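Entry:
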Amino acid sequence: MHSLVFLCARRLVSHCPGARRALDLLPAELYPVLFQAAFLDGRTLALRDLVGTWPFPVLSIRRLVGHRGRRRDRHPFLGEKPSKLCVQAVILAVVAHLRRALEESCRGTRWRRCRLRVLDMTGLQDDDADRGPEGMSLWSGTVALAKACIEVSKHQSECLKRGSKRRKGPSGTSAAPQPLSVEVRTDLFVNGTSFGVLRDALQTGAAGPLRLKCRDFHAEELSVAGTVSLLESLEPAGVRRVDLRFNNLGLAGLCAVLPHLARFTHLLSLKLPYSNVDVRRLPAGTDAGLRRLAAQLGGLPCLKELNLGSSRLSGKLRQLLGDLRAPLESLELAFCYLLPGDLAFLSQSLHAPALRKLDLSGHDFSENLFQPLRRLLEETSASLLHLDLMECRLTDARLEALLPALCRCSRLRCLGLFGNPLSTPGLKTLLRRTVVLPDLRLVVYPYPVDCYSPEPPRPPSASGRLFEDAVDEERFAAVSAELRRMLVSSGRA
């Protein structure tokens, strides 16, 4: 239920001329609730007025409006996906504020109502498939901010040129104006299309009035040189996560990129999926590249999360992770062609008792990897929260044999089993045995093999759903209903 203050704020921002006149009379304490109401209702003009006169040094959008349900207890009435128009309105308001500040500085005036110094946009945008047309993707937000930085920097240059003709300092040289600046804390996503504009923004805006301070950096399909140039342009203090995917860097490329991560002394997460590393291509006895890569990973003292998915690392896990200084809390090794010795190393390593997330999807656990997997689960049982075993050829019998080790993971919250050949009886056994796990809330299970139609499936549709025609929807609906009834009867629905 909305508070009376929020309802009054909503009413006020719905009438833009009245809200604009009222801002001169309202106390600063009402600005946050006015911002919430304007953001919720898409009142972009009101948002621009509010940001343009923001009475506090910091404006954190996520703290005010929440995101993805994380703060529903605090603002249960606010939507999960931020409106593209609202985010753009905030950016445009900051640009307008800085343009005014630059003009005032050129004229020698100092009247400024806006006290904004830091705009925090971290955690707002994402690339979820259910974002919808009204939401703003991380890529779009990155481009909008980059263009804003370039625009303000150009306006600063124009003001400096005009000011140098009007005003001279005591020594006869130009007295450069000192305008206010705004730091934008944000997450960035860049690919080949947006590389140029982000590079220009980071380079020209480093000393400009609008500065980007990156928290989480995502790059996709960039060259080694392009990746390095952007990493070198980031302010190192704020970078928390780096995600480089589909970049086809190879071992040599990773060895060229990773030294530039040493600047990020607080880096917690490094994701390098689809990097095209294949240890089979290394000539016998020449592991120099792997040793360099391992040393570079070891040079990241705060690293807690590592993703090396879809690289062939057979037999090299000990060498790659041996130099890490602290235990990992998240390790993603999907489709890495691991050998029993790799899993044995993990079981005995300092990482096992600290792992909260483990992804071993894409490995064949029907044969010689099965026992090493059981031992690894036993070693991670005290800490593991999230386990992915997608497409691992787990049959009913193999899964049942794994359940004792799985049920020892008493803190498990999420279990991914999609893509395994499990039957309805196998899923029922899974449900009955795992109800003892008090924190388990999500199980991603496959279509049961007995729910597939005996007729051969039709060719793939344009949507790319290869198997949808092969599933007997009526049978699957009945199985789903039965599983739900079992959850209800066990008190876990």
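The mean pLDDT is 89.
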